[in-house]
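Sample pair:
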Amino acid sequence: MTDFNLDALCRRIDDKRDDLVELTRDLVRIPTTNPPGDRYVDCAALLGERLKNRAFSVEYIRAEGAIGDSDRYPRQNVIARHQGSAAGPCVHFNSHIDVVEPGAGWQFDPFAAEIKDGRIYGRGTCDMKGGLAASVIAVEALLEEYPDLPGALEISGTADEESGGFGGVAYLSERGYFSPPRVDHVIIPEPLNKNRVCLGHRGVWWAELETHGQIAHGSMPFLGDCAVRHMGAVIGAFEAQLFPLLKTKHTSMPVVPDGAKESTLNINSLHGGLAEGFDGLPAPLVPDSCRMIIDRRFLIEENLDEVKAEVTDILKSLATARPDFRYELRDLFEVHPSMTEPDQPVAREVAAAIGQIISEPLEYVVSPGTYDQKHIDRIGRLRDCIAYGPGILDLAHQPDEYVVIDDMVDSAKVMAVAAYRLLTTSR
């Protein structure tokens, strides 16, 4: 194998700029909206066919039985592997192929992938099809420049990250696809800004709280028991007790933005009474049920049992103080905080590559929300995993989401350089 030549590798990636742009646009034009999980098969096939034509072995894995999987909306995943000329480690680039719904407020067609002022606009450009395309170009350029690399390179496109990743990376991790000895280093090209190495994420606990009442005629509410009023008491207690408590909790994790260095709770949704979605006037009823989804993000310094107790203690207190207060609390989803160390091989080599390629100062950060590192860490038992990719974090899930083309090119160079070093110097 020839000696490493940074300038030659970077020139090769520069020459692939148009290819990078068109691959990103092709990916964005497949509206893989989740939920429900549209067109995963088409997007996985686009990625798989491209890499198969470049001497990768390609495997399609449907997460049968996973949450959301059905014949209409199969949870399709694709993994492509290039085995090198000699034994060595495996570097894996993992990207999710699902995107959130566009929502309102767009000036651009969210699935047209229009180009303007050096940017590609569309749902998923930033989060994270631009990163997926950059990783593909990085690996292809690396193999063209150094065809005799040892070890293995893998690229995956996985399902359902936006809804927890259970039909994607979690399913694959349970089956050994993200564990040694198959894989040694993982880079997830999430949009954290091109000069940042993301070491991990905060924890999350989602729960559904339901308060119960008794149905009655709306003209005689005294004959019933309003579940919405009971929920109002819960929200009032949260405002008076829980939210001020969360403001006192701070982390040493380098979480961005600064507001996420505190513990947070979001009331994700609230519904009580008659179901919505009908025409005409509602019936005059006292609501006998009110449901609220809470989204609690917690810090590595916190204990999950204590996080839950902060809520359950309030509910128990209300049950004692408030007549006829009845409730149910159901866990929906929980993930512990995850953070790898900056001196781990993958973080070290990506940071070194940023120093060579990117003019902006290097930052180590932690994500305010979770991403698929949670499954690679907890299920795959693989610690050497980070997020790094193009895209501006604040644009994720926004109308007129975009990715800057120059940022994709720069990030592809960083990924290629880091992968080379991991394959040739890390054992």
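The chain has ten helices and 16 strands.
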